[in-house]
Design brief:
The complex is a heterodimer of chains A (about 1150) and B (about 180). The longest helix of chain A has about 50 residues. Chain A starts with 7 loop residues before the first helix and ends with a helix. Chain A has about 1150 residues and is an alpha+beta fold. Chain A has nine domains: about 120 residues, Haem NO binding associated domain (Beta-Lactamase, 2-Layer Sandwich); about 90 residues, PAS domain (Beta-Lactamase); about 100 residues, Beta-Lactamase; about 100 residues, Beta-Lactamase, CATH 3.30.450.20; about 110 residues, Beta-Lactamase; about 60 residues; about 160 residues, Heat Shock Protein 90 (2-Layer Sandwich); about 140 residues, Rossmann fold, CATH 3.40.50; and more. Chain A is about 45% helix and about 25% strand. By secondary structure, chain B is an alpha+beta fold. Chain B folds into two domains: about 60 residues, no CATH class; about 100 residues, Alpha-Beta Complex (H-NOX domain), CATH 3.90.1520.10. In chain B, about 50% of the residues lie in helices and about 15% in strands. Chain B is built from six helices and four strands; from the N terminus they run H-H-H-H-H-E-E-H-E-E. In chain B, strand 3 and strand 4 form a beta hairpin. In chain B, helix 1 packs parallel to helix 3 and helix 1 packs across helix 4. The two termini of chain B are about 30 Å apart. Classes of the chains: A alpha+beta (about 1150), B alpha+beta (about 180). At the A-B interface, helix 5 and helix 6 of A face helix 1 and helix 5 of B.
């Protein structure tokens, strides 16, 4: 083992911070640096200088420290805690001393400096100072990095700024000679170019502004919706236009200035010119070099119909070119325009409204000071009328020249100015020979009619148009006939400047006319011809028989004919004349009276037809005949009188029938009625027999009268077929049922077979069909003791809309003898070969046949005596689109409905009153009797009835009038069913009753059951909802549409719901009243919400809505009073509705069964 | 040279003549480095260029610039940035200069990318010492003179520095005699 020996100097060089402690804990020796650091001296107690914080060791003796060997020790200077030594203890056994070797623990080079430690105070091997140096270098490096980051960030910002600068500069060309300014939204200048910086004061909107104020003003005009706007301002005697553009994202406004001084000057000049141009009625426009209109005067606007706004920025071609505009002329104009040349053209301009005008257009280029074209100036003059006249003239001259008819143009005195080719050809005179002469002077000759000549010269003198037929001579003295139509030519001042005449060679026509006339002269009728232009009439016969004047007299005095016409009939002629002249008619045929020269009145049949018209279609000539129809007329008058007498007689008969109907039926009604009542008085057997006879006789009498009346009316033509939709199969089934009941106790079977193809609704007269069937089946019934009656109905023929339906009524009765078959449909021919017990009027089948005939049908009969009879009739019906009324969800009437109902009976006949009242009493029905129409109306005004039975013929006011009164005035019975009780006519009654507003009618005399049926039928409807007033202030009709929607055909389900409502839901309703009184709105709202839909479930839709209202009010604005009122309304209606619901439930339950 | 040197030049110019002048110097030198990292070595040429440019811009000779820089290096960079590292070099100018060679040896360890000059001392008396400067770099003797002068100022000692020999005159190295 090697030993080391150091002297103190060596040791302290190696370990300048060593300390040796003896057993007394005194410092024996210490390194130079530790002495410097801690001011420790030999001999001093170690404890005075150091403590040992790590490992924490309180020590009193050396032994306490010895245990600390072999580990890291931290010594802390007691006087300066920042001085720490890091090292280790080593026990020196030889000297019994403890050695500490270590080095200071420093955090930074600055700490070394603080403790005055230098590099030489450390051993060379001790890296502490170097480590501190490294630490420092790293610290500096970190600082550098932080600085670097800062610098980079700074650079980044600068880059950004630079970018922005570049961007801004890019948007701002500084070299532009026009002023460019950029201001912020406050109006402060951000940037401007050199041209802008020269501008200092601005004259803007009459204010003289320094540039800062000017730009502030601009900034204040910023409009967010419109980022571009422009203004004009003057600066240094120059006018600038400033286009301001808002750059919202950049936050500034760019102002682009442009020197428009020159342009302004030009515009001012132009506007001065324009003022002049504006006053011009011609159109004036300015066009820019590109061809767009920059300005137009009012004249142009008026001419074209466009507004200035519509005109500016359009090209003249684009604006006014239309289908009539000549393309070639436009080409010429465009060429001149493109070459900067002036032009002058005539063009058709189309206006805004599509109309057009001829415009004379002069175009002139405008040059600026440099000699460049700065635009065009155009003047447009409307020359339409000149142009049209010119065109017209051209056409007219051409027409005149080329006309196949001769044409003459003369001056105002009648001297020829010009003739056409046809004229020279016809007359043989040349144009030169004709000009300057009056046509009459060289064309007329000895046979020319002087009157015509006079007429012509008169018309020319008067300057009026003329139309004549005249005989003229040509150059070779050959005659020819001319028709001349002439008219004056007038100038703009309406002065006559000449005449124009169109001639027509009518020589051939004239010759044939003369031939015809001589023929006509010898024919019986008077033939005449009237000329509308000359007003002259020609008559064919030299002597007019029925006037007593000669033709010459008539011709010479054109008024004579008119004056001879009977004063009362003259208007006929005037009217006819007017119609001809106005082209409203082509012919006429009139009968009128005329006064003969001898004073007698004659009838004339005057017929005529237009034979010639002018170019405008107006008639020139009509031709016609006069026929004396005096004797015919006399005969006619006699006939008419006879007819009137006959008509009067018929009317009297009609009235007689009507009266008889009423007079006989009324007592008969009473007789039948009383008989019915007598049956109810428990008569004894004999009385019963008498009553039977009485009833049979009365019934027979009733039927006889009905038949007679029907027959009478059919023959009088008073029955018409009334077509309306009806259910044919339904009608047949009803008829079948009626007879089945009737035949119930007899050994006669009634069978009916209906073709399955017959179904739905047909258009036809169901009443007539019913009567036919009743008659035929009734007949069969009458003559069949035993066996069967078969009714078969077949679709015989199916046309497009018409179905021909064949009805067969076959019985197994007595049959009809073959020799009687032909008479069967004749009146009063009763076939009673076997002395049959049944008697009839003999009218039934005659009526039946008449009814079939009326409907365009056929009827026939086949019969074999002893075997039976078959009546076959076929009727046409139209198939109707209307669907048969479906079986709806309706409340059916039950007999008990009539209990409690109230009837108004309007009847004047006491016996009838008694009859009806005894029936109503018997049925326990309340009623009031009104003895005439007026009283009935009074009663109707007073109180409500469930039905009104209304007699028709009553004193003071009849049933029709009373019904009209009730229906049209406000009263409780405005909608009450009214049923007519009528003893008057039969079949045509129903229409009138319905027309005045009645529901139905019953013919007197009626059986008790008939009346009961009527009551049941109409009072039933009443209860179910036609007359809601009876049950409350609300309509109590159940909402069947809704019920149908909810339950459909599921009546069992509906019955369940009704049952539930009545039994379980209904008792909850009174709670509503309690809640209202308690002002418990929340509960009320909930309850109303819960209950309202249940009302809908039973069809009480209106109540449901009202309860919903309670629900709403209770939530939004609950107040006791309105809620209470609303509830009371609901409650009373609901109470009234309960019986209806119960009844509906019964009905539903019955349907389920 | 380490960035710290260039950085020191930047600080010197900026603090004494303003940031504009530094920008001008930088622009003039053609040195396109925005930020010098203290602990990163840069091409020596950069330092020369900056010194040359500073001379032009500031109207000083290169020698004056380098001298000023040497002083700055000690008084500002060393003292302020290195937190008393210079002062830790010795308790007096003499002690510091005596320790200088050893100090530089330590520096070499700390900055491995450094091509440090070598200093030697000789002829140490009570009032003077010879400082031998061995370097591969040319033309930095004025910088060394500045450093020595700066050290003197740091220890608050008035000194006279004599250049006893220089490479310019064909010697192997420069010898400065520092008298106090």
């Amino acid at each position: 083992m090697h030993s080391f020996y150091f002297n103190t100097e060596q040791f302290t060089r190696l370990f300048p911070f060593y300390i040796i402690i003896n057993e007394d804990l005194n410092v024996v020796s210490a390194g130079k640096s530790v002495e410097k650091l801690c001011a420790i001296k030999n001999g001093e107690n170690f404890k005075r200088h150091f403590s040992i914080p790590r490992p924490y060791t309180p020590f009193q003796s050396l032994n306490d420290l010895l245990v600390l060997q072999n580990q890291l020790i931290i010594l802390e200077n007691i006087n300066d805690a920042s001085i720490k030594l890091r090292g280790q203890f080593e026990y020196l056994s030889i000297s019994n001393e403890l050695l500490f070797i270590g080095s200071p623990w420093l955090g930074s080079i600055e700490q070394a400096r603080e403790h005055n430690l230098h590099i030489n105070d450390f051993a060379y091997h001790d890296p502490l100072i170097d480590l501190l140096h490294v630490l420092k270098a790293q610290e500096i490096g970190n600082k550098d990095l932080q600085e670097l980051v800062k610098t980079i960030n700074k650079q980044k910002e600068e880059l950004k700024k630079a970018n922005q600068e570049i961007h801004d500069i890019a948007l701002f060309p500084t070299q532009n000679p026009d002023p460019l300014i950029r201001i912020n939204f406050e109006g402060e200048v951000i940037r401007n170019n050199p041209a802008a910086s020269l501008l200092e004061f601005f004259l803007f909107e009459n204010q003289f502004l320094h540039n800062d104020l000017f730009f502030k003003l601009i900034a204040s005009k910023i409009d967010k919706k419109n980022p571009r706007w422009s203004i004009e301002a003057t600066c240094d005697e120059k006018v600038y236009s400033f286009l301001c553009v808002t750059m919202a994202n950049e936050g500034y406004i760019n102002i682009y200035g442009r020197d428009i001084t020159d342009k302004k000057k030009t515009e001012d000049e132009l506007s001065r010119l324009s003022l002049i141009a504006s006053a011009n009625k011609n159109g004036v426009i300015f066009i820019d070099p590109d061809g767009y209109i920059t300005w137009a005067n009012e004249g142009f606007c008026k001419l074209t119909g466009y507004s200035l706004n519509e005109i500016v920025d359009n090209t003249p071609v684009g604006l006014c070119k239309g289908p009539l505009t000549d393309e070639d002329t436009i080409e010429t104009v465009l060429e001149s325009f493109n070459n900067g040349k002036s032009f002058s053209v005539n063009l058709i301009y189309h206006r805004k409204d599509g109309t057009w005008f001829w415009g004379h257009s002069d175009g002139q280029p405008l040059f600026n000071e440099k000699g460049e074209i700065s635009g065009y100036f155009g003047i447009i003059e409307d020359i339409t009328s000149e142009k049209l006249n010119e065109e017209k003239l051209k056409v007219l001259s051409q027409i005149a020249e080329d006309n196949i008819n001769p044409v003459i143009i003369a001056d105002k005195n009648g001297y020829v100015n010009w003739v056409n080719k046809s004229f020279t050809q016809l007359t043989g005179y040349t144009l030169e020979e004709s000009v300057g002469k009056k046509p009459g002077s060289f064309l007329q000759g000895p046979d020319t009619d002087l009157k015509t000549v006079q007429y012509l010269s008169q018309q020319i003198k008067k300057g009026e148009p003329f139309a004549v037929e005249i005989l003229n001579y040509n150059k070779n003295k050959k005659k020819y006939w001319l028709r001349i139509q002439g008219q004056p030519i007038k100038n703009a001042k309406d002065e006559i400047t000449g005449f124009f005449a169109l001639e027509e060679d009518i020589t051939k026509e004239k010759e044939s006319e003369l031939r015809f006339r001589s023929v006509l002269e010898n024919i019986g009728d008077n033939i005449w011809e009237h000329n509308f232009i000359t007003g002259r009439t020609f008559f064919s016969k030299s002597q007019n028989d029925f006037l007593g004047y000669s033709t010459t007299e008539l011709t010479n005095n054109q008024k004579l004919w008119w004056e001879s016409v009977h004063n009362d009939d003259r208007n006929l002629l005037v009217e006819s004349d007017y119609k001809y002249r106005n082209g409203q008619t082509e012919f006429h045929s009139l009968e009128y009276r005329i006064m003969h020269r001898d004073g007698t009145v004659r009838w004339v049949l005057d017929r005529g037809v237009v034979i010639e018209r002018n170019k405008l279609g107006k008639p020139i000539k009509i031709i016609g005949t006069h026929v004396d129809i005096t004797s015919q007329k006399t005969l006619e008058a006699a006939l008419k009188k006879a007819k009137e007498i006959a008509e009067d007689a018929r009317q009297a008969e009609k009235q007689f029938l009507a009266n008889m109907s009423h007079e006989i039926r009324t007592p008969l009604n009473a007789i039948i009625g009383m008989t019915h009542l007598l049956f109810d008085t428990r008569p004894n057997k004999q009385q019963f027999e008498y009553l039977e006879i009485l009833k049979t006789s009365a019934d027979f009498l009733h039927s006889l009268i009905s038949d007679l009346l029907d027959m009478a009316k059919i023959e009088a033509g008073r029955i018409e077929v009334q077509s309306h939709p009806f259910d044919l199969v339904g009608l047949l089934r009803t008829t079948q049922r009626v007879f089945q009941i009737k035949l119930q106790n007899r050994p006669v079977e009634l069978e009916m077979m209906v073709d399955t193809r017959i179904s739905g609704m047909y258009l036809g007269d169901d009443l007539m069909l019913n009567q036919i069937l009743l008659n035929l089946i009734g007949n069969a019934d009458k003559f069949t003791e035993e066996g069967s009656i078969e009714i078969s109905v077949k679709l015989k023929k199916e046309e497009e809309i018409t179905h021909w339906i064949e009805f067969n009524v076959t019985d197994t009765g007595l049959g009809i003898p073959a020799n009687k078959l032909e008479e069967i449909f004749q009146k009063f021919k009763q076939i009673n070969a076997h002395g049959h017990k049944h008697k009839g009027t003999g009218l039934g089948l005659a009526i039946t046949k008449q009814l079939v005939d009326l409907q365009g049908g056929t009827i026939s009969v086949k019969s074999q005596e002893g075997k039976g009879t078959t009546f076959t009739f076929m009727l046409p019906f139209q198939k109707s689109d209307i669907e048969a009324i479906p079986d709806t969800f309706e409340i059916q009437a039950v007999s008990s409905d009539l209990l409690g109902c109230k009837v108004l009976v309007a009847e004047d006949n006491i016996m009838n009153q008694k009859y009806i009242s005894s029936l109503l009493n018997k049925w326990n029905i309340e009623f009031i009797i009104a003895s005439d129409g007026r009283k009935a109306v009074e009663q109707a005004l007073k109180q409500r009835f469930d039905i009104i039975l209304m007699d028709i013929q009553m004193p003071n006011m009849d049933g029709y009038e009373a019904t009209i009164n009730i229906r049209n005035t406000k009263n409780p019975n405005q909608h009450t069913p009214i049923v007519a009780l009528t003893a008057s006519a039969m079949l045509d009654q129903k229409n009138k009753t319905i027309l005045v507003g009645m529901e139905d009618f019953v013919t007197k005399p009626f059986a008790p059951n008939q009346l009961l049926g009527i009551l049941k039928r109409y009072v039933k409807i009443d209860v179910s909802g036609q007359n809601p007033e009876t049950l409350g202030n609300l309509s109590l009709q159940l909402d069947h549409t809704r019920l149908q929607e909810m339950y459909g055909d599921d009546k069992a389900y509906a019955a369940d719901m009704f049952q539930t409502f009545l039994a379980d839901v209904l008792p909850n309703f009174p709670v509503i009243q309690d809640l209202i009184l308690q002002n418990d709105w929340e509960s009320l709202n909930k309850l109303a919400h819960k209950l309202s839909p249940t009302l809908g479930m039973v069809g009480l839709t209106k109540l449901e809505l009202q309860l919903s209202e309670i629900e709403t009010i209770s939530k939004e604005n609950p107040q006791e009073e309105p809620l209470q009122k609303l509830w009371e309304g609901i409650q009373s209606t609901l109470d009234a509705a309960v019986p209806i619901l119960q009844q509906e439930l019964v009905h539903l339950q019955e349907s389920v069964k | 040279m380490y960035g710290i040197v260039n950085k020191a030049i930047e600080d010197l110019v900026t603090e004494n003549f303003g940031a504009d002048k530094w920008e001008a110097v930088k622009q003039k030198s053609g040195v396109d480095v925005d930020f010098f990292l203290s602990n990163e070595p840069y091409d020596d040429a950069i330092t020369y260029q900056l010194a040359g440019a500073a001379s032009d811009i500031l109207g000083l000779s290169v020698g004056q610039v380098l001298n000023a820089f040497g002083e700055w290096w000690i008084l500002k960079t060393g003292k302020e940035k290195y937190g008393g590292l210079m002062e830790a070099g010795g308790s007096s100018l003499r002690e510091f200069l005596v320790n200088l060679p050893m100090f530089h040896n330590r520096i070499m360890l700390m900055y491995p990318k450094l091509t440090p000059p070598e200093f030697k001392v000789s002829d140490a008396t009570e009032n003077s010492i010879h400082v031998h400067y061995h370097s591969k770099r040319e033309g930095l003797q004025e910088f060394v003179r500045g450093l020595l002068s700066g050290l003197a100022k740091m220890y608050n000692v008035e000194v006279v520095i004599e250049l006893l020999q220089t490479r310019d005159e064909g010697n192997t190295h420069e010898i400065f005699k520092v008298n106090w």
